[in-house]
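Below is our example:

___
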Amino acid sequence: MRWVDSIGTVVNDGDSYTDSEGTTYLSGFPKSNISGLKQVIETPEPSTDPTGYTVTGEARGGVMSPVSSIDLKTGKVIWTTQARPEMTEAEQSAVDAMKMKVTAITAMKAADTTVLRCYEAGVAVPTAWQTYRTTLRDIIYGRNAGPLPVMPSYPAGT
């Protein structure tokens, strides 16, 4: 079982853990008894968004908090459950916006690689890619609520 704290540190059941106040819990200490840790729920099958990038979907049961952390090894977003059974419309809107932002960040990282390949190959970055990246940037910085743009085809010669 995996747990996450308020700053996004992911802790496995068998790990020792030191909280923000400096208290260290040995590896055998039950993580369910540590206040401030939330159980991580990951979906077994990620969902794919229209850009073709994969983001872990919502966990079943409970309310999803905005992104708690991102697993840097797999690139999956980890959502945690909260005790309340339902979200308000404002909370759902905030979660949806955060998911859109995370998906746009992931797409922007992949687009950075395409721009780098253009640079290395001496190929000008096509206008379609410039527009795509501008739209993603607008979503990331909250200037555009979506929808996510469709990734253009890779530039010839890259």
Observations:
- The first helix runs from residue 89 to 121.
- Residues 44-67 have pLDDT under 50 and may be disordered.
- The two ends are 42 Å apart (CA to CA).
- Strands lie at 2-4, 10-12, 17-18, 24-25, 38-41, 47-48, 54-55, 63-64, 69-70, 77-82.
